Amino acid sequence: MQTPLTHKLQIRYPILQAPMAGGPTTPELIAAVSNAGGLGNLGAGYLTPEQIDQAIREIKERTAHPFGVNLFVPEPFTESVDEIRQMNNSLNSYRARLGIAQDPEITKYAESFEEQIQAVLDGGVPVCSFTFGIPGASVIEALKQRGTVVIGTATTVEEAIRLEAAGMDAIVAQGSEAGGHRGAFLNRQDEPLIGTMALVPQMIDQVSLPVIAAGGIMDGRGLAASLALGASAVQMGTAFLACPESGAHPVYKQKVLTAHEEETSVTPVYSGKAARGIVTAFMKDMNQYAGEIPPYPIQNALTRDIRQAAAKANNPEYMSLWAGQGVRLATTRSAADIVRHTVDQAMSILNR
Amino acid sequence: MQTPLTHKLQIRYPILQAPMAGGPTTPELIAAVSNAGGLGNLGAGYLTPEQIDQAIREIKERTAHPFGVNLFVPEPFTESVDEIRQMNNSLNSYRARLGIAQDPEITKYAESFEEQIQAVLDGGVPVCSFTFGIPGASVIEALKQRGTVVIGTATTVEEAIRLEAAGMDAIVAQGSEAGGHRGAFLNRQDEPLIGTMALVPQMIDQVSLPVIAAGGIMDGRGLAASLALGASAVQMGTAFLACPESGAHPVYKQKVLTAHEEETSVTPVYSGKAARGIVTAFMKDMNQYAGEIPPYPIQNALTRDIRQAAAKANNPEYMSLWAGQGVRLATTRSAADIVRHTVDQAMSILNR
């Protein structure tokens, strides 16, 4: 199961646990995956530099194996006071229902990318991956100088070509099946949502970097299929969401374990950026404001209190339940069991 | 490369050429695929009983191997005179541009399904597949009594379960990557568009019938990947679109050979039913009438003169250019070469 990429990443199996921001990727999960021979990844997009620093230390306490940290590449956004006031008006009805304060004061829309990067550089991280675009050349250079492997995320062939030109070491091909935020950065408004089966071989033919297949891969069948397509590894997120080491909220895990493949949808209503999750009352109801959703990270900051209050009340209908289209195959196995089972099943398929 | 399904279909390789209605599936293409060891399929949804009869005879003149015929299962539709008048008003501007008559008289929206089935029964067809739903029990029974293998099309696990209960012999799992009409029949209005990588294993776990993977499969990598997912065969359409035996219009072939994976979209504007094709000026422009498109088959009949006039004028922008998301991998190889190359590549992947 070794590929040039597993060699470069110094991992035993070509399985990356996806960096699911917002709670699921605990140090326990990351260390369990890395200890099992895969690559655990911290979804650090929403974390403060201090939280990143702390998480890196906790991961290193639990594993001597490589792991990764994922950051969101910021994009410029304009803050419209009117747009925010209007959205807050709309969101206040949900706040009333959840019994929390109207029009909360937002002091910060997003963490400082520069400070997050500094925490990654200071922390001595084996792998750093990026979503939502291409970081500046100085960032890529600084990471590489410290021996960090850098990975970009592409949803089209053209994005992969740009990432290769920017000096990435590998590329995650994010198919339309994938849960969570879409990594599209060249065609954000009207993303073509290309399926993994179509995306991976077309990308492999146009770039020379190793390609990591992501989207709809849930077990050894998906791993074997991805390797057959020419991928050097897979990235699996939803497959780990409901495992004991995942930090996903218990009602979120319950939803993941009972949802069907047709119950997810891509929506911008939680964060201002398209993301795939299990359909909730909030998603359905917010469709009435389509076209009025402020861009990321504004909307993300505006809905934070609602998502947090819903989680506290164990009410999944106002939480973001990011999950991919393979969700029927999610299990409660331990992270190590998921890695082992995936590898064993893929081996038996490829060797039959 | 033999599976229980290839045995049942009496074909050498687990490759079905997709039944692309509207021109591409000439008797030459179908016979070439079947003679090469795959299963050629006639897209007969728009054909008169006489045309079906004629095509079957021409196929049988060219091959002694099995082949299939695909029909569209009709669904009830209501004809609104106002809606049709309004759409014709909108379409008249395209007609003016193409120099054809305004408000053409439509004498028939669709062919008679009963008469089409009779032609298939009379023709002695080895395989009959269906799209857009489940035919009546008497149809399935009559076909099976004549030894015809019956295949249904599903876009979700639930649709596959219904098709199995109805007595189908196999199921095409149509992933979101697939070109042409969406086969969705339980959730037509808000189809979840599940990618092949996610759909195939989830469907296989829930039905006992053989599953044929479709959507984004363009070469031996896609075939090997689909077999790894547990599929019994693949169905490939876009891969055959630009081959010499394909009846696709030359400018359509040219578009297929130059389009990128991100240039397709799912649209109801040509036929009233969602279908994936290369984006055209007509698709973009007609978006202004979203919500006013009459249902299939009405819209299909209303746009027919426009599509035909555009084809005559070699103007791809008003033709329907159905194609899947794997379109970058289309070639001008002969149909037999495509089958051979796909098999050889898959064998070398699976045996390495």
Automatic annotation (TrEMBL), chains A, B:
Keywords carried by this UniProt record: Detoxification, Flavoprotein, FMN, Monooxygenase, Oxidoreductase
Necessary cofactors: FMN
InterPro entries: Aldolase_TIM (IPR013785), NMO (IPR004136)
Catalyzed reactions: 3 propionate 3-nitronate + 3 O2 + H2O = 3 3-oxopropanoate + 2 nitrate + nitrite + H2O2 + 3 H(+)
Gene Ontology MF: a single term: oxidoreductase activity
Pfam assignment, any one: NMO
Gene3D superfamilies, alphabetized: Aldolase class I (3.20.20.70)
Function per UniProt: Nitronate monooxygenase that uses molecular oxygen to catalyze the oxidative denitrification of alkyl nitronates. Acts on propionate 3-nitronate (P3N), the presumed physiological substrate. Probably functions in the detoxification of P3N, a metabolic poison produced by plants and fungi as a defense mechanism.
Family of this protein: Belongs to the nitronate monooxygenase family. NMO class I subfamily.
Protein name: Probable nitronate monooxygenase
